[in-house]
Amino acid sequence: MADGGNTLIEVSENLPEFADWLPDALLPYWNTLAQYPILGAVFIVVLFYILAFVIRAILVRSIGKLVSNTQTELDDRVLTGLKKPLFNVVFLFGLTLAVRAAKLPVGTDIIVKILLSLIVVTLIRASFFLSSELLSALARNHHRFAAIEERSMPLLDIISKLVIMLVGSYGLLIIWGVNPVGWLASAGIVGLAVGFAAQDTLANLFAGFFILIDSPYKLGDYINLDSGERGMITHIGMRSTRLLTRDDVEITVPNSVMGNAKIINESGGPHEKMRLRIPVGVAYGSDVHEVEKLLEALAREHKEVCTMPAPSVRMRGFGDSSLDFELLAWIVAPEHKGRIAHELNKNVYDILNKAGIEIPFPKRDLYIKEMPVK
After folding, report:
1. What is the separation of C-alpha 354 from the centre of its chain, rounded to a whole number of angstroms?
2. Which residue has the higher pLDDT, 317 or 1?
3. Pairing state of beta strands 274-282 and 263-265?
4. Are residues 59 and 168 both part of a single domain?
């Protein structure tokens, strides 16, 4: 505690005296008044009480004119919420100077520490208010700030308040003469023990935080995992992510796994549309131009195939027993992929049959070298 005591003495001795704030012309009057410490202290209290009112009024009026023309309500709420903390900080600082000027026989250091602690607490509460208002405003504009959304608000709010609390606690320790180095060392040892005990949980928490920040997927997206699962994102938590498959089966995947997995987001990109690829094989000798026209017309007639981008047909190559085509058609949402592919496949089969275009299939010729002897 020796270092802590020295720190306390330094904090107390380094506080400015009231005379340090006065211009030289007023120093003689203050020196006369300072001969009566209690009277001087009362004068300082009254002066800073008035000063707190004046500073608050000037700042509120001047800043209020600047923010009156803005379209957001954030600045108005911040200005209203900071009126009381601003007044309290100025007045408490005046009380601190008054206590030192009063030259009490005992208890000066304790009272000064209490008043400085109240100033720190006031600043912590004001910082809490500012962080909450700022995060709420950013969440309302989540289209510009993708990392700040409704699902990530609790996490970011906790982190911001934790940082503010740590900084404020450090200030309080300094004010009360407690050496923060020992506390930090103890906290580090405890942190290591907790880290080893909850390694998997912490891995999921950190992965969940980075998933929220990086946003590789969002609620409602259809994704495919490299392990074969496909489904719609129904929940993104700090520990796990949930997928709802087309069989109405919910799969819960730890965030540590999601953070290291290869994810194919079918709903990603500039829009939610996705392109279906329907492979079609026709026999050699077929009219390739007619096949192309038939397949394009078939896709255009389907009510759930997008007109923009328009469907198209590509000839991909020459197979062992077929000419290989691919019908490319855009659909509105990934969840319709299986059903629309099913309908297009049926329609392709029907239209090629009606046009007399053969769809080849594997054939085997069996040659009997010799008949078995009876």
Report:
1. 56
2. 317
3. unpaired
4. yes
